[in-house]
Amino acid sequence: MPSYDFACKSCRKAFEVRRRMSDESPVTCPKCASEDTIQLFVTVPTMFTRKIDHPDSPLDDLPGAEKMRKQADVAIHRALKDMGMNP
Ligand SMILES: [Zn+2]
């Protein structure tokens, strides 16, 4: 099942949702339970949440991990800003 990045307009939390592509039901914010959410079309590297290749090594030790995480943060914040939100 593919996963999608969403952001909550109420509390501005960004989160990931796994669901079928055909599923168009409202996405509920895991933090405040608001259904006022929007999909973010940015790619956040999943290696930060799933340490499949390096299960024994701390996340921060992966080469380039810190840089990529910052890029992901920037991408999310930029997307939120484009939508008129100030994270
Ligand atoms: Zn929320």
SSE topology sketch:
Elements: E1 3-8, E2 14-18, E3 37-40, H1 65-82
Antiparallel strand pairs: 1-2, 1-3
Structural summary, described in words:
With 87 residues, the protein is α+β, with helices and mostly antiparallel strands. It has one domain (3-82). Helices cover 21% and strands 17% of the residues. It has one helix and three strands; from the N terminus they run βββα. It has one helix at residues 65-82; strands at residues 3-8, 14-18, 37-40. Strands 2-1-3 form a three-stranded antiparallel sheet, with helices on one face. β1 (3-8) and β2 (14-18) form a beta hairpin. The N and C termini lie far apart (29 Å). The model has no long low-confidence stretch (mean pLDDT 76). Zinc ion (ZN) binds at residues 8, 10-11, 13, 29, 31-32, 34.
Q: How do you describe this structure in short?
A:
This protein is α+β, with helices and mostly antiparallel strands.
